[in-house]
Amino acid sequence: MTTEKPTMIEFRDVQKYYGDYHALRGITATIRAGEFFSLLGPSGCGKTTLLRTIAGFEDISSGAVLIDGKHMDGVPANKRPTNMVFQSYAIFPHLTVAENVGFGLRRDPRPASEKAKAVAEALEMVGLKGYGARAAHALSGGQRQRVALARALILKPKVLLLDEPLSALDKKMREQMQMELIKLQRQVGITFILVTHDQEEALVMSDRIAVMFEGQIAQLADPETLYRRPNSRQVADFIGTMNFLPAKILSENGVVEVEAQGFGRLTLAADQVMGSKTTEGTSIGFRPETATILFDGQVATDRETLATIEEVVYYGDMTYYDVRLDGTEKPMRLSMRNVFGRPVLDIGTRTRVGWSPGALVLFR
Amino acid sequence: MDKGNSRGRFRDTEAAKGLMLVSPTALYATLLLAAPLFAVVVYSLMIDSKTGASAGFTFNNYIEVWTGKIYQAIMLRSLIVSMTVTLITVLLAYPVAYFVSFGVSQQRKALWLFLITIPFWTSYLIRVFMWKVILGYNGVINSGLMSLGIIDEPLTVINYSVGSMVATLAHAYAPFAILPIFVSLEKIDRSLLEAGQDLGESKFLTFWRVTLPLSMPGVIAAVLIVFIPTIGDYVTPELIGGGKIPMIANMIEVKMLKQNDKAMGSAIAVTAMVIVAAVSVLFLLLNKRFLKGQSK
After folding, report:
1. What's the whole-number average pLDDT of chain A?
2. Could you report the predicted ipTM of this complex, rounded to two decimals?
3. Which CATH class for the A7-228 domain?
4. Nearest-by-Cβ selection for B199 from A56, A83, A137
5. Does chain A have fewer CB atoms within 10 Å around its N or its C terminus?
6. Which of residues 196 through 225 in chain B touch A, CB cutoff 8 A?
């Protein structure tokens, strides 16, 4: 997953002000060629602004944006080797599907018949074969999305920019399009940059993700690292669910000795310790699936702690248990895969919880 | 089952409620618009009516209107004046509408629209007189040029001419053209313009390929709103043209009131109406083409 590829996009200390509002606060990052890269963050974090600085719709106040090694300062949107799929899709309502897809081919020197062939191929690639003559306004949301994709990809850009392209689709359609986009990206090999606020979407689709808060990149990593080793409580909270328990550092020299509520004395490796900017104080974090409820006769693979079940949420394939470990104040969420023949436990049940120190993260 | 019952049911239907709602207006329109119109059509088909229309049916009035040199000339002049006015008004209104829509911040737009409507605060007649003050024989332009010694005699080309009529009308109808164009520009999704540039077109070509076609419904509405009233304008030729260069409405007035020839007056009126209707239908069809695909 991390074979080094050449750099496609480089941000050098990019700053953006809107009047007094500091929208981008020193973004420095590189995006590699052929990568599926996501900008993930809550609304207002600057991810769309950052995407628009690549497209050329947003001037930057200072710093530099480079595409394929070239400075983009002063280069207008129509001269950049990027194309965009807009959140609203921006399909031209006065044109047919084929005219929309062929919009950017006007200056292409090829004869009209070859352009028409290229349009037909692009439509086929996105699964809209034979839709060329249709009026753009007669399309469904998913079809508009595909037209927007075909319209951008037909120009063979170096970078395809996707601004929350799936947010207007229903859940089923969204999941289907996620898979199609991944396949399409592998097929064409173009660098895709996706803006999304949906952490699940980012995890599913991306090679690497930049998590942004308040105009800054909080963490830039591959999905697995982001999920297992979030570098702050903020990132941990934003990506999936994480349980936190207060903790106290006893000593550190290479490894870290910790006293954590509910878990007792622990020794953690250096890579499990994350510097956190939060003011909540030192805490231990773990994901719901890294601790398990031990049913009768099951033996813990590592450690175990006694707990009381306080809430049960049944999801069909999964059951979420909110359990309070003995010696703690807050319930922790555990997710258990349901197994045929095993009962769902009731609220108030006393149970044993199995966990492993290796799955814990310390935020300080 | 019985009659009373079904009538009761009819009274409750949407259609009945709709009819009830429109009936006062419909009645009003019939009495004040359709009935006089019908009377005009009837008059236009009557024989000699110098002493009030007498009974008898003929197409001679129409034949005279369509073949008579003077009628043709006046009709043609009306068409040329109103088409020139329409062209100039729309061409000048578009940049103003574009500026207000794209160049003015959201909070200031209302103020700009308000400013555009200010000319309406004075009566049309007064505005026409003001133009007469500017363009007239002893008007501001002539006396100004003469006092500067640029000309010795008042220019006659700027007063009592078709040109001065066009200037006056174009000024008067500018807001009518600006507003519909502004509305159609406001409706354009701004991301479409970004998409145009993103797909490699310059700002100008994006305007040409995206903004302009999408604003055509507004342009066509402006054309109709300016063209229809100006072709039948009566006051401007009378005051600015000094009655020397009549348009079709002045001709109708002369026939109807001065010569008391109701039949001929009516025939001219109906003819003018048919021509306006034909031109309007043409533009409506054009509009349909542009509106296609913009049902959103």
Report:
1. 91
2. 0.84
3. alpha beta
4. A83
5. N
6. 196-202, 205, 209-210, 213-214
DSSP A56-117: TSS--SEEEEEETTEE-TT--GGGSSEEEE-TT----TTSBHHHHHTGGGTT--S-HHHHHH
Q: For A93, which of B205, B209, B294 is closest by C-beta distance?
A: B294
Q: Structural domain boundaries of chain B?
A: 69-291
CATH number of B69-291: 1.10.3720.10
Q: Would you list the domain boundaries of chain A?
A: 7-228, 232-364
| Percentage of chain B modeled with pLDDT above 70 | 89
* Superfamily designation of domain A232-364: Nucleic acid-binding proteins (2.40.50.140)
Residue A88 contacts B where some CB pair is shorter than 8 Å: yes
Question: Please, which pLDDT band fits residue B219 given cuts at 50, 70 and 90?
Answer: very high
The residues pairing with A66 across neighbouring beta strands, listed in sequence order, are: A10, A71
- Burial group, residue B11, by CB count within 10 angstroms (0-12, 13-18, 19+): exposed
Return the amino acid letter for A103. Answer: F
Helix axes B14-29, B3-12, angle to 10 degrees: 70
Which pLDDT belongs to residue B65? 87
Query: Which residues in chain B are closer than 8 Å to A136, comparing Cβ atoms?
Result: 293
Greater model confidence, B273 or B242: B273
Q: How many CA atoms lie within 13 A of A329 on its CB side?
A: 3
Confidence of residue A151 (pLDDT cuts 50, 70, 90): very high
DSSP secondary structure of B88-155? HHHHHHHHHHHIIIIIS-GGGHHHHHHHHHGGGGS-HHHHHHHHHHHHSTTSHHHHHHHHTTS-SS--
